[in-house]
Amino acid sequence: MTKNYTTVPSLFQITMKTSLLRLACLLAIATSPAPAAVLDKDRALAAQTFWDNRDWDWYKANIPFFECPDADLVTTYYYRWELVTKHLTYGSPNSGYSFTEFTDWPFWSGAYGAISCPVGHQLYEVRWLHDARYARDYSRYWFRTPGAQPRNYGCWLTDGIWAAHEVHPDEAFVKDLLPDLRKNYEAWEKRQFVPEVGLFWQNGHDDGMEFNINSRQTTDILRGAPGFRPGFNAYMYADAQAIARVAKLAGDDATAKTYEAKAAGLKEKVQKLLWDPKRDFFFPMSLRDEKDKEGIEMKKHTLTYQTGKFAGSPHGREEHAYIPWQFNLPDPGFESAWKFLMDPEYFFAPFGPLTVERRDPQFLLKNSCCWWSGQSWPYSTAQTLKALANLLHNYKQSAITRADYAKLLRIFAISHRKNGQPYLAEALHPDTGSFDHHDGYNHSEHYFHSSFNDLVITGLVGLKTRPDDTIEIDPLAPADWPYFALDDVPYRGHRISILWDKDGSRYGKGAGLRVLANGKEIAALNTLGKITAKLPATAAPARSATRINYAVNNDGDYFPRFVASSTDPKTPLNRVNDGQFWYTLHPPNRWATAASTNATESITVDLGMKRRIDEVKLHLLDDGKDILAPASYELEYEDGNAWKPVPNQQRTPAKPAGHRANNIRFAALEVQKLRAVFTPAAGARVGLSEFEAWGEGALPWTPAPPPAGNLALNQKGAGFPQASASFSDRFGGVPKAAIDGRMSYGPTPVNRWTSFGSTNPTDWLEVDFGAPKEFARVEVCIFDDRRGIHAPASLAVQYFANDEWRDVANPVSNPTVPSGGSANSIKFGKVTAAKVRVVFTHQDKARSGVTELEVWKE
After folding, report:
1. Stretch among 7-11, 45-49, 398-402 having the lowest mean pLDDT
2. 3-class DSSP state of 846
3. What mean pLDDT is reported for the chain?
4. pTM reported for the whole predicted model
5. Partners of 615 in beta bridges
6. Contact between residue 16 and residue 5 where contact means Cβ atoms under 8 Å apart
7. CA of 270: how far to CAs of 235, 245, 266, 325, in Å?
């Protein structure tokens, strides 16, 4: 019998039509014309040759575009936006976006690899992206994400949050954070404020300056010489001011007055106690008496070199003492400090500034990490440039000029080079620009510990952010430049273009300085100088639906869970859903198929329950050889027991492309499993940096529960089953962590067992069920840090019977070679036993580790 659906549409048909209509609307909105750009975006991107991330659509949708006569400065500007993408991390649905400092997630980082030391730089930088979610998620991360560490390092976190608010105003958002901002400040006060002095103490290490000229005068050169540092107190001054501003928005006048008073008190004490009129500079003041290894004492409450081994020295100036101007803290009268910045006898260098003045008795350029006694440090360079811009914009002085700002910014731009290509690591030699000895593999590459583009936007071009609807521009660009343009800048709900066209021939908008809002001129000036204008009225943006990447899994949940048709053991599968993407071969962040003759390869994600998905992003690799973008791919979903193509796909780009996200949009589907099936290019393998599955949802998000039946699971840690091992490391990797239901393949949190330090060629991890159980499969989730812990050379499963350990019969392993960063499945003939263990034959000198061991009946 033929059924007729023409008169009464089914619920499925209605749902599909509604979803298709919604998709069409979204696509129309996404492609709706913005005000005509002044700069040709495609041409600007094509002019650069360094690109690793070639997602032109993302750049065109998110970044302001810039040009000027200095080609090196322009190249560094675009490189710094690519650098941002390498550190962009979607940690979890509840946390959203955050940013890393290093390419890896070192053990001292917090949740999802974030470190508080550079957060101020990072927020000032990413606030200029069109999508405000990046900065807002990161602002909220520090207070609402378990494992975040906002006070591990000195930083200007609250000031950075306010700075982002000035660009993307959202009063409800910042007011909601006010209790968190206060608690964070109060925790700093409780730990480090000294009422009788009126200042906060901090050691150099926790200000990002491990070995410094004060700590080196103690017996603890790493953490010694805590003191009242100008920079850290300037951070707390700025944060107090920002809290006061947020409190005023919230109508909390009492809190506003309290924090205004705190800021005023810090301002007074920094100027009174930390300024040395003899040396015309700010200095740290010691917290306590301390002796060096020779017994020479630095006295409590003295400035650098007022006591100690170098008492009476006229030197001791450190670059970080310019930080107070980063926040406009000093009153007029202290500007003489800036006379040292451009002097080669003090701070100036071809790739500087120096972190310590050249003639200092402890000046030292060390061929190892973290000696801040002369090396050029991008973190500090960015602070100094920000401070200098404030000085030039807001103070009357003659110690330094606008030409000096342009000169230092150019030096900073060309400092971003390695072998002629854009690059940045932790520090560089101030005289040669070399990153040697400050450039750790899979650690310091493309280091996000400073700002640069914010300096171009707010300093060179001179867009001074304000919390009102007046736009103020005061360029520090050289007056002899014939042109520059900053185009499509997001600012307080508008798209701003700032153009300098000396004779009017380049942009066709007229000679001089022009300011456009949404494509229409709102201010003009014949000369290069300060200009202000009123921004047009704008409606408050509508709240958009919450978008969730349902495929990410950094929290060790059972779901979402990936499996692949094959995996290169050197490319762990967990990399495809760690929330990060980049495309370089070294260092890697990738999964790739093993060498095979398969006609197709696939990767499948099981979300654990049905989720409403309307977009998948495949970040495809293309190394130029061996691993190439596939010839084609199919995106499928599981419908019952059958795999079906996802209908009505809208692909960008239309054909598979490496070094970018391949976006597949479609009418929303309720799905639990998705897979991508690749047809490899001839003679090549296939690889991904990230697999994302997006849809609308509600927060807080709850992960799907794990399936029942894991005989090894003991989430409470009491009773049976119990885990034991032949050997356990001394860093917290214990057997019980391998059966707690959490899978953490990263260095933090430490949720694993490892045999690091074992002298045995083999080690074992055992599970005692407490009573006989029937089982036929073991899943070994292998931890591999690519350092001292590697995937083992081989795995063997044994069960305990008749007072002896026996090998299981007919084991079949998938993958055939043990692979780190993923579940390794071993199936075998059913056995009944009270104990099972996995024996690891270690890989060379490395040892083995497991983040979770599962035992299943089927």
Report:
1. 7-11
2. coil
3. 95
4. 0.93
5. 665, 694
6. no
7. 12, 22, 6, 12
pLDDT at 34: 65
Q: Which residue has the tokens 């399936």?
A: 707
Q: Which residues pair with 630 in a beta bridge?
A: none
Residue 787 lies in a domain: yes
Query: Which candidate, 529, 410, 511, places its Cα nearest to that of 69?
Result: 410
* Residue 21 within any structural domain of the chain: no
> Looking at the structure, do residues 752 and 639 belong to the same domain, yes or no?
no
Hey, how many other C-beta atoms are within 10 angstroms of the C-beta on 216?
A: 19
Give per-residue pLDDT as tens, 718-760: 999 999 999 999 999 999 999 999 999 988 888 999 999 999 9
Tokens of 408: 């230092």
- 471: tokens are 């736009």
pLDDT value at 518 more than 70: yes
Q: Does one domain contain both 727 and 691?
A: no
| DSSP annotation string for 69-120 | S-HHHHHHHHHHHHHHHHHEEEEETTTEEEE-SSSS--TT--GGG--STTHH
Q: Is there a domain that residue 120 lies in?
A: yes
Residue 72 in any domain: the answer is no
Q: Which residue in the block uniquely carries the two structure tokens 């070679």? A: 817
My answer on whether 365 and 308 are in the same domain is yes
For the chain, the residue count is 858
The verdict on 613 and 727 lying in the same domain is no
Q: Are residues 564 and 684 in the same domain?
A: yes
How far, in whole angstroms, is CA 101 from its chain's centroid?
6
Which pLDDT tens digit goes with each residue over 326-376?
999 999 999 999 999 999 999 999 999 999 999 999 999 999 999 999 999
Q: How far is residue 547's CA from residue 534's CA, in Å, rounded to a whole number? A: 34
Q: Is 187 helix (H, G, I), strand (E, B) or coil?
A: helix
User: Does residue 235 come out as left (phi exceeding 0), alpha (psi in the -120 to 50 range) or beta?
Assistant: alpha
Total of domains in the chain? 3
β-strand partners of 774: 832
Decide if 449 contacts 101 (C-beta within 8 A). Answer: yes
Q: How far apart are CA 489 and CA 483, in angstroms?
A: 17
CB 320 within 8 A of CB 229: yes
Omega before residue 560 within 30° of 0, cis: yes
Whether residue 386 sits in one domain with residue 275? yes
Domain encompassing residue 663 = 547-695
DSSP 208: T
Q: Are residues 654 and 551 in the same domain?
A: yes
